[in-house]
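Collaborator request, handled under Task 6.
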Amino acid sequence: MRLKQNYERKDEEIKRQFCNMLQESPGEFSERLKFSWSNWGFGFESLEDSFQRLHKAGIQYIEIHGNHYGKDLGYSVQETKRLLQHYDLNVSGVCGMFSAENDLSSNDPRKRQAAIDYIKREVEFTKEVGGSYLLIVPGAVGRPQAYDDMELERSVDSIHHVAPLFQQNNIKAAVEPVRAAEVSFVHTVSDAVNYIKKVDHEGIQHINGDAYHMQSEEEHIGEAILKAGDHLINLHMADSNRGALGDGHMDIDTIIMALYLIRFHQKEAFVTPEPLGPGGDPYPAMHAKPDQAKLNHLVQQSVSYFREREEHVITGKSLA
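Structure tokens returned to the collaborator:
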């Protein structure tokens, strides 16, 4: 008899729990996971081009690039609403972008203030366009080296200044753990839960997971999803090569099972591909010239593969 590897044992335990749920509560599977897409990786293209691509692929939700870096910059509310109606799309949330220039944990107070002001603009935009969450990264992406040993404390202090805004506007702050190659702290679901506990405010209670980061930082992606539980409001996805779903070797089936086990399909929560390609700092992708053929492949391949695997898992054909 072959001795199973540790990850296989964990896979099988999630599969066992999922099969029990499937048998005991089949009615819970009438609703599928909500599929969104994060558009900031599309590069420097018009919002209408992005909307056209997603509409053509049959995607109903979009996570919009939080590009209001100043009072005169970013998508207009009026134009965004017009396009949403025209292409029959809804906003899942807004992807907050945090670099060294707007860093909640910075040792430069001006950059902390820039992060606070940025969040204020994006909370307002998220509410106006009907989004349910705003992604928050506690420290700068693309800066893996720590300033000092007080980053966590400064970030918590910074977010306290805007925590009431989330509550007042009914927007969920989705704290994202990011791999150590890209940020200096908050790398795991446990780190994000600890951050939420330290903030200790009703306005900061949710997590934005990312399967690509999880494969680097977590012992097991499925277990990390179960650990996040009710905190998890959005899950970014990319395959093992940070490409389209189905183009790598990530275990999509176990991820799907874990999401159903936490009843992800029964709340306002989203699976949101964000295939950005490998590298330590993905932010340059937002400024790149769009390769339409490549982007169309990323979207079409990801949505078709995910739905194929989801249907396969739920109908039981992959569980024999």
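The cover message to the collaborator said: "The longest helix spans residues 292-315. The mean pLDDT is 94. Please let us know whether this matches your experimental observations."
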